[in-house]
Amino acid sequence: HTRVLTVANQKGGVGKTTTTVNVAAALAQAGLNVLVIDSDPQGNASTALGVDHHSGTPSIYEVFVDGAQIADVVQRSPQFDNLWCVPATLDLSGAEIELVNMVSRETRLRRALDAFLAAQATTEERRFDYVIIDCPPSLGLLTVNAFTAGNEVLIPIQCEYYALEGLSQLIKTVELIKQHLNPTLRLSTILLTMYDQRTNLARQVADEVREHFPTQTLETTIPRSVRVSEAPSYAQSVITYEPGSSGALAYREAAREINDRANGG
Amino acid sequence: HTRVLTVANQKGGVGKTTTTVNVAAALAQAGLNVLVIDSDPQGNASTALGVDHHSGTPSIYEVFVDGAQIADVVQRSPQFDNLWCVPATLDLSGAEIELVNMVSRETRLRRALDAFLAAQATTEERRFDYVIIDCPPSLGLLTVNAFTAGNEVLIPIQCEYYALEGLSQLIKTVELIKQHLNPTLRLSTILLTMYDQRTNLARQVADEVREHFPTQTLETTIPRSVRVSEAPSYAQSVITYEPGSSGALAYREAAREINDRANGG
Ligand SMILES: Nc1ncnc2c1ncn2[C@@H]1O[C@H](COP(=O)(O)OP(=O)(O)OP(=O)(O)O)[C@@H](O)[C@H]1O
Ligand SMILES: Nc1ncnc2c1ncn2[C@@H]1O[C@H](COP(=O)(O)OP(=O)(O)OP(=O)(O)O)[C@@H](O)[C@H]1O
Ligand SMILES: [Mg+2]
Ligand SMILES: [Mg+2]
């Protein structure tokens, strides 16, 4: 059974893309087949995974707006043979307005992903263990599509004050999607990111999140580490860029925890 | 003449709100009349300025969707007598979809602001020197309205790799708005934020931005400083929370540079 994780948080800059890319890379390094779907018009995940996404490249845009098949737009990441990516291009930035008046505007990604995974399931070696969907910093139709397509929600939370402000709205949106569009959706994972243990603020935010979400919040926290932010400029994840760095260790640890949880952890 | 600055960048977490709040507070501390318009559904600027913005509070949502007057929703910030704020509430998160099929969907904020400033101009003591509009991390209709209402664009750029990726799209959008909706709009100011001088990455990004935008990029850069991120949890700007911190000094410096530029600097 393929796990489909939607990485979302309307607060900007909290580590959605960094988490998507590095958890995906760590799972791929461990031998699992992973597909990343980049649904952020900025295309940061596509950049970090080293896949071509200049304007006009077949991408998630064609899947949303033209009903293209995922099989026709997916690319293999140069980082691992078992790591694939559906890129996002700038064309996607107009998609939300285009989607508003389209038929089944909230379920277009789900239908495309279901068809792709069903077809893949027949060819054993390409069956995907994980699909991870990176979202833009908003709760618009691109993120709604990602919630409808996913089975689990992974929320990265930066250990900063503003991080807590938008959380209840995010949880409400997940509940709304669960009620009306996707009954299988559940908030399974919260990951604390850019944790700087020298500051009180980080500790306070982390304590508060663990108190409110004791079972969803991973034991592993991701420390602030400059290697993490350098890696994308080399079109790499930190897992391959600097395997011994604190960021790489933490993301490998987080990936292991996520994977263990599925197996009844 | 009132300067209207739109603070925008679709990349999340780059310091849009922090820049809006702290530049506004520094200008107010220097005796200028400042109005902040919060057009981000997260309402982070409203929080940092200490104004009430629970759901249902009269806010920018009513201005966008019901055609309410700004005079009816504006609140004074407890931080300075000459600092005012039009708050954003969670109601705003549905506004973008509501706006799509509305008449003059791109100019609703401009018309409301023009009417407000025209009425204020007759009562001398409340004439505003600055209006600063905080945007959400996207280039949707809320940001388009802010570009149409503004005369200048201020782009905060975090000294990180992803920061450069979305820049050309942002500049193109500003050009598009200038051509079709607001001929007075110009990219006047770029501010480098969260600059950590210990890392090569920050220096490389800063050098690249200064090379491409020599005249718009402020001399002042904002260092990463934990006091800056603590201030909003006390409903304060760093200017009042910790006046002697490196963040407060830098934001006062940036505000002075912005104000000098208008006076033929
Ligand atoms: N653990 C970390 N240590 C240091 N820097 C980090 C870490 N995690 C993320 N960053 C950096 O912080 C910035 C924000 O992270 P990222 O872009 O992944 O967030 P995001 O939530 O995807 O942003 P957006 O809302 O724009 O999509 C990036 O420049 C990234 O390189
Ligand atoms: N100079 C700084 N030093 C330390 N922390 C900072 C600094 N500037 C901003 N921050 C922190 O970084 C985070 C992102 O900043 P901010 O929320 O202002 O960005 P934004 O662009 O408005 O985000 P969004 O895209 O979600 O609207 C916040 O938690 C803020 O407190
Ligand atoms: Mg991202
Ligand atoms: Mg903001």
What Rg of chain A, in angstroms, do the CA atoms define? 17 Å
**Integer average pLDDT of chain A:** 95
Strand count of chain A: 8
Number of helices of chain A: 12
Strand content of chain A: 15-25%
Q: Report the biggest beta sheet of chain A as strand number plus sense, adding barrel if it closes.
A: 8 strands, mixed
Biggest interface, CB < 8 A: A-B, 39 and 39 residues
Low-confidence stretches of chain A: none
Strand order of the largest sheet of chain A: 3-4-2-5-1-6-7-8
Could you explain the architecture of this structure?
- Two copies of one chain form a homodimer.
- The first copy, chain A, is an alpha/beta fold and 265 residues long.
- Chain A is globular, with a radius of gyration of 17 Å.
- In chain A, α1 (16-29) crosses α12 (246-262) and α5 (108-121) runs parallel beside α6.
- An eight-stranded mixed beta sheet of chain A has the order 3-4-2-5-1-6-7-8, sandwiched between helices.
- In chain A, β7 (186-195), α9 (200-212) and β8 form a beta-alpha-beta unit.
- The longest helix of chain A has 17 residues, at 246-262.
- The first copy, chain A, has twelve helices and eight strands.
- The interface between A and B is large, with 39 and 39 residues.
- Bound molecules: adenosine-5'-triphosphate (2 copies) and magnesium ion (2 copies).
- One magnesium ion binds next to α1 of chain B.
